[in-house]
Amino acid sequence: MGRVVVEVMPKPEILDPQGKAVVGALPRLGFTQFTGVRQGKRFELEVDGEVTPEVLDAARQAAETLLSNPIIEDVVAVFDATEVRA
């Protein structure tokens, strides 16, 4: 079984109240090195078999039409969950 990860973030010009709340709480917990937070969404889509380029293309289409609101969000990543990401 394969798994595709889709990451969606608010567009930069959209206010992010959840991110603002988190960035306000971080210093109170001793995390003073962070100056900004944007909170997004992560979806994990399971598929039968391996993740092929065709599966990734279908996931991109699903991300753009269903998993994100293109007016206020950007699809920032679509990748095979077995990929090593920094």
From TrEMBL:
It is found in: Cytoplasm. Pfam families: PurS. One of its GO terms (molecular function) is ATP binding. It catalyses: N(2)-formyl-N(1)-(5-phospho-beta-D-ribosyl)glycinamide + L-glutamine + ATP + H2O = 2-formamido-N(1)-(5-O-phospho-beta-D-ribosyl)acetamidine + L-glutamate + ADP + phosphate + H(+). The keyword Cytoplasm applies. The keyword Lipid metabolism does not apply. GO terms for cellular component: cytoplasm. GO terms for biological process: 'de novo' IMP biosynthetic process. InterPro entries: PurS, PurS-like_sf. Keywords: ATP-binding, Cytoplasm, Ligase, Nucleotide-binding, Purine biosynthesis. Its EC number is 6.3.5.3. Pathway: Purine metabolism; IMP biosynthesis via de novo pathway; 5-amino-1-(5-phospho-D-ribosyl)imidazole from N(2)-formyl-N(1)-(5-phospho-D-ribosyl)glycinamide: step 1/2. Part of the phosphoribosylformylglycinamidine synthase complex involved in the purines biosynthetic pathway. Catalyzes the ATP-dependent conversion of formylglycinamide ribonucleotide (FGAR) and glutamine to yield formylglycinamidine ribonucleotide (FGAM) and glutamate. The FGAM synthase complex is composed of three subunits. PurQ produces an ammonia molecule by converting glutamine to glutamate. PurL transfers the ammonia molecule to FGAR to form FGAM in an ATP-dependent manner. Part of the FGAM synthase complex composed of 1 PurL, 1 PurQ and 2 PurS subunits. PANTHER family: PHOSPHORIBOSYLFORMYLGLYCINAMIDINE SYNTHASE SUBUNIT PURS. Belongs to the PurS family. This is Phosphoribosylformylglycinamidine synthase subunit PurS. It comes from Isoptericola variabilis (strain 225).
